Amino acid sequence: MPNKNSKQRIIIIGLTILGCLLIIFFGLRSFRAFQKFDRHGPPAGDFPEKLETDVERVRDWMTIPFISRMYGVPEPILYDALGISPEDNHKKSLRDLNKEYFPENDGIVIEIVKTTLLANQSPPTPLPPLTPIPPSAP
Amino acid sequence: MSDFLLTQIINYGAPLLGIIVFIGGLGIPLPCTLLIIAAGAFARQGILDWQITSIISIVSVIIGDSLSYSFGFYSREKVLSRFSNTPQWLQAEQSFQKWGALSIFFSRFLVTAIALPVNLLSGTTRFSFQKFLVYDILGEVVWIFGYGGLGYLFGSQWEVVNEFLSNFGGVTLGIVFFIFGVRQAWNWNLIRQKA
């Protein structure tokens, strides 16, 4: 019986300590994530989303057709920049394309894609000129 | 794993997402929450149709959850042969009848790590399947529309949302363990004082 009690005590203490550790560990990570979350408000704009312009959002799991749609840059331009044909490659991620066509240059595909996107993005829509507000009458 | 699945979802769309959340519902650990948030963002970008995706996902995950309930249901005899009539088992059964509905609801989206044990326990303790289904559907609807909706709202910035929510899930799990530990210690202390 005392053996059973001590086993139960160990489990209870272990669970409580584990709970505390999880709260501290994930609490700190949540706080850091929340700070980032707070800086990135939901993007204003139309649904479906207007074209992305920030090339830092390109990830190596993305495919060329996906990136083309996301940034509004035609697929042939991206394939030409990489020097590969769209055939059999349109479902491959940038990482897989890198492994297959540039095995010696890790990360080169994502860099080429980013540079190509920057060079081929459509110019931003100009903002309407500011209209001066007339001073209110006294 | 997450990157591979993201690539496949942009290639094969909602049917693949349905298969993944179905497998997740069976208890195989897959990054389903991340994929749901990403699917919301893909819907905003026009890659996925949000109506079809949400219907397929909800139906698939509910089938997966129901199957894992049935695993618990049909393994009752084995579990009983091991724990039958022990005070711990009777206490667990009583507690589950009392708290089961809330456990089912919140484990669908807030503490997803305990979703599988909750499904199995629901079946093993013979928690009413109709009640299980109602709370399962409610929880999964919150999961798909809540998390997917955040992905939709944040669009291409969905990774920030995912980072926050996945860490917050860890905090919630910690709180559950902590409260459970303190409650057991409290009960244990009361029993010792009475003895």
Give a written overview of the molecule.
Chain A has helices spanning 2-39, 64-71, 75-82, 94-101, 108-120. By secondary structure, chain A is mainly alpha-helical. The mean pLDDT of chain A is 80. The longest helix of chain B is centred in the last third of the chain and has 37 residues, at 158-194. The A-B interface holds A 8-9, 12-27, 29-30, 33-34, 36-37, 40, 42-43, 47-49, 52, 54, 57, 59-63, 66, 69-70, 91, 93, 95-96 and B 2-4, 6-7, 10-11, 44-47, 152-157, 160-161, 163-164, 167-171, 173-182, 184-185, 188.
- Which two chains have the most extensive interface, and how many residues on each? A-B, 45 and 39 residues
Oligomerization category of the chains in this entry: heterodimer
Kindly provide the radius of gyration of chain A, computed on alpha-carbon positions and rounded to a whole number of angstroms. Answer: 26 Å
**How many helix segments of chain A?**
5
Domain count of chain B: the total is: 1
Beginning-to-end CA distance, first to last residue of chain A: 91 Å
Q: Specify the biggest β-sheet of chain B.
A: none
Q: What is the distance, rounded to the nearest whole angstrom, between the alpha carbons of the first and last residues of chain B?
A: 53 Å
Topology:
The complex is a heterodimer of chains A (138) and B (195).
Chain A: H1 2-39, H2 64-71, H3 75-82, H4 94-101, H5 108-120
Helix pairs in contact in A: 3-5
Chain B: H1 2-12, H2 14-26, H3 32-44, H4 50-74, H5 76-83, H6 87-107, H7 115-124, H8 129-154, H9 158-194
Please give a quick description of this structure.
Chain A is mainly α. Chain A has helices at residues 2-39, 64-71, 75-82, 94-101, 108-120.
Give a quick set of tags describing it.
A: mainly alpha, flat, B: 9 helices, elongated
